[in-house]
Write a structure and sequence with these properties.
alpha/beta; Spore Coat Polysaccharide Biosynthesis Protein SpsA, Chain A; 9 strands; Glycosyl transferase family 2; transferase
Length: about 325
Amino acid sequence: MVENVLISILIPVYNAERYLERCLDSVLAQTYGSFEIVAIDDGSSDGSPAILDAYAQREPKRVRVEHRANAGAAEARNRAIELARGEYVAFLDNDDWLDPDFLEQLASHVGEGADIVFGGYRRPHADGSVASEIVPHPGEEWAPFAVLAAWAKLYRREFLLANDLSFLSANIYEDLYFSIPAIYAAQRTEVVPYCGYNWFMNPESVSNTSQRTSEGLEFDRAMSALVDRVGVDASGRQDALFVHAMVRLGVFSLFLTRDGDGPELAAERTVLLRAWLDAHVPTWRSDLYARMGRPRGDSRGARIATWLFVCHPRLFAAALRLK
């Protein structure tokens, strides 16, 4: 373990008084000793600012807080990166928490300066039951993409700054503008077959709201910005895994909103997605990873859904209508 490497835990906070103490306590309970918390209060109107200030007063060497007008989670994370003092940073959402050995496990794989260390996550309910768990494994082609959120990883801060990696102010997929370009910019990465991040199945969270519709969600804007950010390789083509990732994201967006949209709008959005892919990801119809067993490391459901979308559109349409 590299015990002298300082790690900054970056937490955007907005009206999180119900879960914030659990989140902060999970960081303070880490078995790895060299860390700081950088919490950005994004204009909270509940008791979150007072909770943060109390922790900063009790742990002045560990906890730093900045209060600011509300500008969204993306801007809060970008500001936290600026304020961080650590050689590495990790992101934590205000209603989630870490296992006690999270930092210890990932820091032990920093080695000689890995740009990113990838870990896994679980999805616990309030009653303690676990809905799902994702653990990446070295050698799996999908491992760097297994967790597309920014959290459950360590990032070398100078690597982020040198590559101008930031979060996009959008109401959907804001993490992806940061995490996917980071994968392509990294020179050295480590995949750790370990799960220590708890992504709470919070029924009040925007990402977990059931029956949501596509109305107002900026899927096209976020995905277009991502395509522009990653660009093409030396041969002038988009990377094959990136092509697959974009198809998969589009498919996910359809399933995310199908119950709220209803079958007719979901069918219309499927047509629009295909047109968007034709314009922005021109090789998607020959997606090399749209296969039953590919990419290795992705979930079975995601592989099947993407394969049907690319290779069997009528079957995909039927699957989209299923409850």
